[in-house]
Amino acid sequence: MATSVTVYGPPLSTAVSRVLVCLLEKDVPFQLVPVSMAKMEHKKPDFIKMQPFGQVPAFQDDDITLFESRAICRYIAEKYPTQGTAGLYGTNPLVKASIDQWLEAESQSFNPPSSVLTFQLVFAPRMKLKQDEALIKLNEGKLVKVLDVYENRLGSSRYLAGDEFSLADLSHLPNTQFLVDKTDRAELFTSRKNVSRWWSEISTRPAWKKVVEMQNA
Amino acid sequence: MAVKVFGFVGSNATYRVLASLYEKNVDFELVTVNMAAWEHKRPRFLARNPFGQVPAFEDGDVSLFESRAITKYVAEAYADKGTSLKSKDLKKSAIEGVWAEVEAQKFDPATAKLTWELFFKPLFGMTTDEAVVEEFSKKLEPVLDVYEARLTECKYLGGDSFSLADLHHLPNTQVLMGTKVKSQFDARPHVSAWAADILARPAWVKVTSLLPK
Predict the structure, then answer these.
(1) Does A192 touch chain B (CB under 8 A)?
(2) How many CB pairs under 8 A join A and B?
(3) In chain B, N or C: fewer CB atoms in 10 Å?
């Protein structure tokens, strides 16, 4: 099937998986081109042309090339507003603003500590690198504060930005999946009643389950 | 007044929002949050921003936090007023969005640390940690290299027109131009020209006139 959308990168990458789940939620066909990080393919000139920082993912649709997973997700949601999951970027400007607010919260407050923990607890051992206990403790402390805010928010709202699943919730899937599934820190999420309920709902969506299958393949 | 910004003169993120409002010629009231008295951690403010950070924003019934979400709202709600901050073309807007993410993910983490060490700490009578300055100056170098290459292709980061992608850089860049980090910008002709251009924008000059002398 001819398709205009290409994603470059391994599905195990949190940023790549963020884009994949968005495409699946929106029923947008795509081809996934593997990039071997072990062979440093992401630092080669052909890749750098698409992504000047040499990071995955890179993304092409028709004649445009994009990078930064959250920018790619916004583009997909704006290009296909009524296809697949309709409310992903809101159906009116006020909901959209709320989604952008919680997507920024994910990007600025949730992502930094959860990324450090994911690297330290999941990837460092796999790469035979020594874990930094001080860094783990520091970032766990930061993440706890963020999850306390979420616990409160999700007590009065089904999803972060409102009543419908949106890009704001979606953006949390990659890091949380690793922390809940592949570390002994799942209780950070599961011990919080509302966060646990929210995680259970968003992680069992068919699109995300498909991405996890791709990661475990 | 319908538009209110709850912030603090001295908060980079507050300036980001003010810049967007001035660009759009939208009248607003700046309500000062007394950070020294921990007002930002009290229930009344936490109701506006549960993370206890400035700025928070109100426009009639709309309440928002996170400066980059607020500027996007301003750019879209007032699309037909003042300067265009977001292209109406989907592809052009997507590319602007890429570089706005670069600011959020790469430029800000490096430069916010530098503004704290080199500007705010001395202001508060604290000592600059030179090791941190060196570490984060090094982190900034490859980012500015990418910017230099990008700005040889087009006048602004997001394309040929000024957009939120450029605007979001204003607060940290302004502060760093008064520090030794200026040399990192000056070493790159296109980055240097771009920085001078955006810092000279009348809307930005209005923001800086709010700063204590």
Answers:
(1) no
(2) 75
(3) C
In a structure prediction context, what are the per-residue pLDDT tens digits for chain B, which is 213 residues long? 799 999 988 899 999 999 999 999 999 999 999 988 999 999 999 999 999 999 999 999 999 999 999 999 999 999 999 999 999 999 999 999 999 999 999 999 999 999 999 999 998 899 999 999 999 999 999 999 999 999 999 999 999 999 999 999 999 999 999 999 999 999 999 999 999 999 999 999 999 998 765
pTM of the model: 0.97
Distance of alpha carbon A75 from the chain centroid: 15
Write the DSSP string, A125-141.
HHTTPPP-HHHHHHHHH
- Restricting to A residues 102-131, those with a Cβ less than 8 Å away from any Cβ of B are 103-105, 107-109, 112
| CATH number of this structure's domain B90-206 | 1.20.1050.10
Distances (CA, A) of B125 to A115, B75, B122, B136, B176: 33, 38, 5, 21, 18
Give pLDDT tens digits for B99-122: 999 999 999 999 999 999 999 999
- What ipTM was predicted for this assembly? 0.96
Contact B55, B13 (CB under 8 A): yes
* CA A103 – CA B116 distance, rounded (Å): 25
Token look-up 């969005």 returns: B97
Nearest-angstrom CA–CA distance, B96 and B150: 12
Look at chain B and count its residues: 213
Nearest of A95, A87, A113, A108 to residue A170 by alpha carbon: A87
Listed by start position, the domains of chain B span 3-77, 90-206
CATH superfamily of B3-77: Glutaredoxin (3.40.30.10)
The β-bridge partners of B6 are B31, B56
